[in-house]
Amino acid sequence: MKKALLLLLQLGVVASITTGCAVNRATAHVEPGTRLSEIKTVHVKKFASDNADTDRLIADKLRSKGVNATTGADTPANKVDAVVTYVEKWMWDITMYMLELTVVIRDPKDDYPLATGNSYHTSLTRKSPKEMVDEVIDNIYKEQGQ
Amino acid sequence: MNSSLSARPRMTRTSLIALVATLWLVGCASPASREAMVPTDVNSARPHPHSVSVLASGGADTGALDSSNIADEDLKAAIEEAVTRNKVFTSVVQGKNGDYELSVRVTRLTKPLFGMTFTVEMEAAWSLTRVADRSVVLRKSINASGSAGAGDSLVGVKRLRLAVEAAARANIAEGLKAISALTL
Known about the structure:
The complex is a heterodimer of chains A (146) and B (184).
Chain A: H1 2-17, E1 25-30, E2 41-45, H2 54-63, E3 68-72, E4 82-93, E5 95-106, E6 113-120, H3 129-143
Helix pairs in contact in A: 2-3
Chain B: H1 2-26, E1 48-57, H2 72-85, E2 89-92, E3 100-110, E4 118-130, E5 135-148, H3 156-180
Parallel strand pairs in B: 1-2, 1-3
Antiparallel strand pairs in B: 3-4, 4-5
């Protein structure tokens, strides 16, 4: 009986501090009127809690699409066509892995989101940070048929 | 010896009951409720003498094994109700027959995975377009957050839903305040 109570207590604690399981998903959206082909220069703003130099991975991926990309924690030194921000969420399951990545391409004038991509992969279908970046950026460009 | 053997099945049964009871207590994640996302503190000075239609996007359905999300139709209904309740426009219409078109797109909903107090951050792209000439009169990225603590609920999935609803409520309130401040 004691073991059962202990089990119930442990399950109760887990139920109390966790938010539920998850599913895999990958979404992208480009704001009507936005032409990604016209975005030639971007600045990737480094996320404060970046664990994997994701800003560099995003910049590299954008360069592969013909975009001139800089990175850094501050605002861009030169005028750019767009600022890219991102939020990454990490999870532990034997090893740490990137659970979720959201990338937003913004208008530098008012921070308005011009395009957004999000990928969410749990442990069994985990992807490397580079694969997550590739998936998100590719989905954004696919959304506009480029 | 005999007593330990006879005790084992009872222990297994008790453990199973404990497990089922816990799962029942926790339940599945539920989507943010449209009623709970309606703010009441927008303080619109006077309604804009126009009608508006609302479009909501960027949300997601809440799967059985997922955590709480905001469905597009619930966000749309919450915004419509908030516009009406706070008298931001004189009327809300469906389709494209309104004087203005309000588009709200969720671009980021950051939810915690663990913790006692959950804080959810929500960013949404708000744009208001005058239908007659398709001119954009408001284009704004709005960030807002909402929290729920153990005092709100001891069950994690419910606490997260409450935090998601609070973030949506705050975001809608900020968006409608920005619209109320416009001269249309």
